[in-house]
TrEMBL record:
Pathway: Pyrimidine metabolism; UMP biosynthesis via de novo pathway; UMP from orotate: step 2/2. Signal peptide: none annotated. CDD domains: OMP_decarboxylase_like (cd04725). Keywords: Decarboxylase, Lyase, Pyrimidine biosynthesis. InterPro entries: Aldolase_TIM, OMPdecase_AS, OMPdecase_type-2, OMPdeCOase_dom, RibuloseP-bd_barrel. This is Orotidine 5'-phosphate decarboxylase. GO terms for molecular function: orotidine-5'-phosphate decarboxylase activity. It comes from Cellulomonas alba. It comes from the Bacteria. The gene is pyrF. Belongs to the OMP decarboxylase family. Type 2 subfamily. The keyword Phosphoprotein does not apply.
Length: 290
């Protein structure tokens, strides 16, 4: 099954929904990243109550105004079950506003454990199931099969870690197989195969850091051939502007969903300021990518 195919329930595939959202609102995803420093800067307590106020304020500010939001699961999980309950509330609230929700949990495992993650994050009716999930393929791309199957069956999507901007990433992602192909290129090729024939975009995307420079070229990754969305963290406060986006993504620029977290969030807690920051970031992303 390709991600361009109709799902059993008749849902529009994630790739098509994301393409439409980027066309309407601009290619920007706002991260909901409740770091301790941001909670403090907003005058909020570092507990589940402060977390809830922070997350729902961000959602209130940007929902219906950006292509997607991306709650960072770890920063909710650190507050225990009460924090996970807030994440569930954010997922539900995003769904009610019609804003796409990418749950940034970077799950990856094998066998029945991956089945469990797929059930938690990609099954209709699960309180943690947004519109897409970030996953790690570094137990082998095939280890993601339960998540791939669940995503495509329910009209959801995946963002597979491919070329990340952390300084350790090259140790695995730039390594070469016996055939001389980089690990990152293998992962990109597997995603491309799943997206074959999808229009306008497949639903199996990649995570490609906006600050990786010429890593795609050096590792032989053809980003345009992936035919799926490219989630690009690192825009704004982390250093990537229009020049960097153009350099990293080249011919694949229209597939890119730029992700900005601190660059938007530091404008809070004022709703109007958050909306202005998100609107500015969306315009800058559109100018660079479209």
């Amino acid at each position: 099954m390709t991600s361009g195919a109709a799902t059993p329930g008749g849902a529009t595939p994630f790739g098509a929904r994301l393409a439409a959202a980027m066309d309407e609102h601009g290619p920007l995803c706002v991260g909901i990243d409740p770091h301790v420093g941001l909670l403090d800067a907003w005058g909020l307590t570092d507990d589940a109550a402060g977390l809830r106020t922070f997350a729902l304020t961000v959602l209130d500010a940007v929902a219906g105004r950006v292509a997607a939001v991306k709650p960072q699961s770890a920063l909710f999980e650190r507050h225990g079950s009460a924090g996970v309950a807030v994440l569930e509330e954010v997922v539900a609230a995003g769904r009610e506003t019609g804003t796409l929700v990418i749950v940034d949990a970077k799950r990856g495992d094998i066998g029945s454990t991956m089945d469990g993650y797929a059930d938690a994050y990609l099954r209709d009716g699960s309180p943690l199931a947004g519109d897409a999930l970030t996953v790690s393929p570094y137990l082998g791309f095939g280890s993601l099969d339960p998540a791939v199957d669940a995503a495509l069956a329910s009209g959801r999507g995946l963002f597979v870690l491919c070329l990340t901007s952390n300084k350790e990433g090259h140790e695995v992602q730039h390594a070469r197989t016996e055939d001389g192909v980089s690990v990152a290129a293998v992962m990109a090729g597997r995603a491309a195969a799943l997206n074959a024939g999808a229009d306008p975009l497949g639903s199996i995307g990649l995570v490609v850091g906006a600050t990786i420079g010429d890593s795609a070229a050096r590792t032989g990754v053809d980003l345009a051939a992936v035919n799926g969305p490219l989630l690009a963290p690192g825009v704004g406060a982390q250093g990537a502007g229009p020049r960097e986006l153009a350099a990293v993504f080249g011919a694949a620029r229209r597939q890119v969903l730029a992700s900005s977290s601190r660059g938007v969030l530091r404008a809070g807690p004022d709703l109007a300021a958050l909306r202005t920051a998100a609107r500015t970031a969306a315009h800058e992303a559109a100018a660079a990518l479209r």
